[in-house]
Amino acid sequence: RWTFIFIKCSTWFYNRRINKFNEKYGSKSIKEIELKNKKNKYIYEVEGFDSEKEYKVKIDASSGKILKAKSENLDADDKEEALDLNGLISRSEATKLAQTKASGKAVKWSLEMDDQQPVWKVELKDGNKETEVKIDAKSQKILKTKTDEDKKDKKDSEKKDQVDHKENSFS
């Protein structure tokens, strides 16, 4: 019973942010909803689009006040994918699932389409260690776990490849 109420409240909370977006731009397709901490304040970013433009609204998570809004023309090669909000797990459920794969406090959440499926990305922070857990928002399956060490290893590898390439070009 409590889970149902919480899911309903979470959905209601997102719907309020989407309604703020719609108040500003009218009914558009939603592409992404993100919640992150900026300067000790939680901010929602809601991104949407139509056939001609893309839109972004930043909303104070506490007050619901629109902090910033912008729109720009879509590039001809942009392939936007609308987020289907029906039947998805809540942000709270995504956080609990993420915490089964990594320790730390959840500090950032995003809900977006990835390869034609709705996906939660939950970022957990434990001291200096950051971990991003990617979860299928319908099936609840953990799709990927990536730590800041993985990102650092990839950057180091890319830098090494660039150095190797430069060294080989001088030969």
Walk me through the structure:
The protein is of the alpha+beta class and 171 residues long. The chain is 32% helix and 40% strand. It is built from three helices and eight strands. Strands 4-3-2-1-5-6-7-8 form an eight-stranded antiparallel β-sheet. Strand 5 (105-114) and strand 6 form a beta hairpin. It starts with a helix and ends with a helix.
Q: Which H/E pattern describes the elements?
A: HEEEEHEEEEH
Span between N and C termini? 70 Å
Cα shape: globular
Tally the helices: 3
Could you estimate the helical fraction of the residues in percent?
A: 25-40%
What's the total count of β strands? 8
Poorly predicted tracts of residues:
1-13, 165-171
* Class from secondary-structure proportions: alpha+beta
Provide mean pLDDT, rounded.
Answer: 81
